[in-house]
Amino acid sequence: MKALLIAEYRQGKLLETTYELQAFAGLLGAESAMVLVGSPADLPKFAGKLYLADVAKYGEYNPDLHKKLVLEAVAKENPDYIVFVHSSYGWDLAPRVAAALRIGQVSEVVGLPDGKFEVTCCNAKLRRTVAPKSARTVVTIQAGAFSPQGEPQGAPQVEGIDVADPAGKTEFVGYEAAEQKDVDLTRAEVIVSAGRGVGKKENVQVIAQLAKALGGELGASRPVVDAGWAPHSHQVGTTGQTVSPKLYVACGISGAIQHLAGMKMADFIVAINKDKDAPIGEIADVLIVADVLQFVPAMTARCAR
Amino acid sequence: MKILVCIKQVPDMESRFKLNSEGTWYDEADLAFRMNEYDEYAVEQAVQLKEQLGGEPEITVLSMGPDRVVEALKKALAMGADRAVHVKDDKYYQKDPWQVASVIAGHAAGQGYDVVFTGMQSQDRGSAQVGVTVAELLGFGCATTLVGFAFDAGVITAKRELEGGSKGVVKLKLPAVVTCQLGLNTPRYPTLPNIMKAKKKEILVQAVSELLKEAEVTGTGGMYPPAKRGGGIVIEGEVNDQLDKLMGILKEKTTVLRAA
Ligand SMILES: Cc1cc2nc3c(=O)[nH]c(=O)nc-3n(C[C@H](O)[C@H](O)[C@H](O)COP(=O)(O)OP(=O)(O)OC[C@H]3O[C@@H](n4cnc5c(N)ncnc54)[C@H](O)[C@@H]3O)c2cc1C
User: Fold this and answer.
1) What is the share, in percent, of chain B residues with pLDDT greater than 70?
2) How far apart are CA B141 and CA B173, in angstroms?
3) If exposure means fewest CB atoms within 10 Å of the residue's CB, which of A71, A211, B16, B156 is most exposed?
4) Tens digit of pLDDT for each residue in A166-189?
5) What are phi and psi of B152, to 5 degrees?
6) Could you tell me the distance, in angstroms and rounded to a whole number, from the CA of residue A258 to the centre of ligand 1?
7) Distances (CA, A) of B89 to B61, B94, B100, B223
8) Do domains A2-160 and A185-303 have the same CATH topology?
9) How confident is the model over B173-184, as pLDDT tens digits?
């Protein structure tokens, strides 16, 4: 079995998630080769063949062009699986490669129970196994689901890839940096986070008061930030911050995979949710089944005593 | 200009899910359905583009599924779409993303759409494949995960959300497909007069069999609830009792509570 791993390079740097692809290929028991549109000066540690297109020539992300480069490597390598990280790069590029080859794709794989591709659905309330039906399959893996074991090692055998026509339908203009941070959640020992379940902007204060009583910081899930109830610097998750406090209290947060990605490393997790089946219960050390607006003020009063 | 918006109707994610008898999908009985959250941003962005262009573009909204999806279509019409296409398919959940995309592309081919808006993924299946695949099948340019959209002189400037809060800015010529992410805009609530007006708008029904030309390339093995992580404690009951228990646990297991 052969896997072609699509490594990722952004803003002048090879991304660490590349090593998760290797970990996944290891679990699959696949022999692997890699593709990178990146720099010869920053290659992954990898004992295998690496198809390299120089970022200096091809630029960082042009989907049509990167698709052609990946297809070049597919033609040379003839893999059974073409594997991406389910990232802003992977979810954008993977379906283009699958469509060009008219093959199936399994998105955001979180596990391989009995060798089956396991994915989540319904906001992580259910899991599903997906069975490829094409001879070759594109797979994207959930970032963080397959951790590398040990230090990656080896130097790749590099082979260049080129495409004749570098034009694409999308023109990359540039990056916009994340907003300035007014709080550093990565250093907080206690984080109390507000989710959509708090109901309205004024109620975020109730959560902030508990954070204060516990000597911690206010965190938030994405809908709270999107609605303008809290600044983006407080967002925890894939597109927010990754935190590892001693205590994380999730208030009215369902436990979607993109939120968990940012906080599951916390030492101790308490979730307050009126829904006993909320998927946050899967990773919480304690799930309090309650209305946040009744429970949180009572807890603040106890902690302030 | 002709605009297509693809929407899906999904269950309220706060529902209790049970499995169907084959164990391959959720049982729809007792579930409340609504428009996929990501698609609400797609509808809103299409309507905003129409408004920007002085009401000239015609917006078609398409949904594939059983009869209930007409409710989602009506909501999109009340938000400002002009006409709707219901691709009727009671077994929609057995189609894989490749088939769904080819059905949509089958409808779109030859219709002369300039812009196609979709959500970046559905809340139930979450494959994030359909929009991009539609673009590939139609030969359109495509940008995913939009948190910013601007249109000027035939060119879309899209802000794509990347990890960690940074963004990638791309430009796309028409025809194009864009997939919409949370936070792109604030979807409007349909007003009563618009709900009344929407009742007169056309909903064309097409059988999925007329549009489906592709076999599936992935299938569902099984579906099941996640295994609970061992050791997690669930505390129900009255708030003060819950608090007594929680404070005891926090004192025992963590160092964050000041010794009281
Ligand atoms: C590419 C991508 C990136 C993303 N990045 C992030 C990210 O960085 N961070 C992030 O958080 N999300 C992110 N998301 C969004 C994520 O998928 C979820 O939509 C989001 O995390 C849900 O937030 P929530 O749990 O607050 O809201 P919901 O999922 O709506 O959950 C609300 C919860 O509150 C409970 N509740 C309601 N009322 C009460 C009450 N009165 N008392 C107690 N409980 C109550 C409900 O039972 C429910 O469980 C991303 C999504 C995508 C596609």
Assistant:
1) 97
2) 7
3) B16
4) 778 999 999 998 777 778 899 999
5) -155, 130
6) 9
7) 16, 10, 11, 21
8) yes
9) 999 999 999 999
Per-residue confidence (pLDDT) for residue B199, from 0 to 100: 96
The full length of chain B comes to 260
CA gap A212, A204 in Å, rounded: 12
CA angle B152, B155, B160 (to 5 degrees): 105
Closest among A222, A230, A225 to A259, alpha carbons compared: A222
**C-alpha to C-alpha distances, A48 to A35, A139, A158, A159, nearest whole angstrom:** 11, 20, 9, 11
Q: Could you tell me the sign of the dihedral formed by the alpha carbons of A108, A111, A116, A120, in that order?
A: negative
Collapsing DSSP states into helix, strand and coil, what is residue A129?
strand
Q: How far is the CA of A280 from the centre of ligand 1 (A)?
A: 10
Helix (H) or strand (E) holding A303: helix A292-304
The answer to whether the Cβ–Cβ distance between A95 and B133 falls below 8 Å is: yes
Q: Is the pLDDT of residue B233 over 90?
A: yes
Taking the CA of residue B145 as reference, the ligand 1 atom at the shortest distance is 1
- Scanning B86-115 for CB atoms below 8 A from A yields 96-98, 101
Q: What is the pLDDT of residue A150?
A: 85
Architecture of the domain defined by A185-303: 3-Layer(aba) Sandwich (3.40)
pLDDT > 50? residue B259 = no
> Quick one: average pLDDT of B40-44?
98
Per cent of chain B over pLDDT 90 is: 92
- Residue A79, token pair as written in the block: 């893999």
Domains of chain B: 2-211 (3.40.50.620)
CA gap A277, A287 in Å, rounded = 10
ipTM associated with this complex: 0.94
pLDDT higher than threshold 90 for residue B230: no
* B85-106 pLDDT, tens digit each: 999 999 999 999 999 999 999 9
CA dihedral B48, B51, B57, B61 (to 10 degrees): 40
Q: Which residues contact B133 (CB under 8 A, 6 or more apart)?
A: A95, A98, A99, B97, B98, B101, B102, B105
Q: Measured in whole angstroms, how far is the alpha carbon of residue B35 from the centre of its chain?
A: 7
Under the phi-then-psi rule, with left for phi > 0, alpha for psi from -120 to 50, and beta for the rest, what region is B77?
alpha
Rounded to a whole number of angstroms, the CA Rg of chain B reads 22
H-run or E-run covering B108: helix B97-108
CATH (residue range A2-160): 3.40.50.620
DSSP character string of B34-73: EE-HHHHHHHHHHHHHHHHTTT-SEEEEEEEESTTHHHHH
Residue A202 tokens read as 């004024």
pLDDT < 50 stretches in chain A: none
* Band of residue B229 on the pLDDT scale cut at 50, 70, 90: low
Would an 8 Å CB–CB cutoff place B232 in contact with chain A? yes
The span from the CA of A6 to the CA of A82, in Å, is 7
In angstroms, the Cα distances linking A140 to A69, A91, A232, B186, B229 are 18, 7, 27, 30, 24
Pocket test for ligand 1, best of A258, A270, A299 (most atoms within 8 A of CB): A258
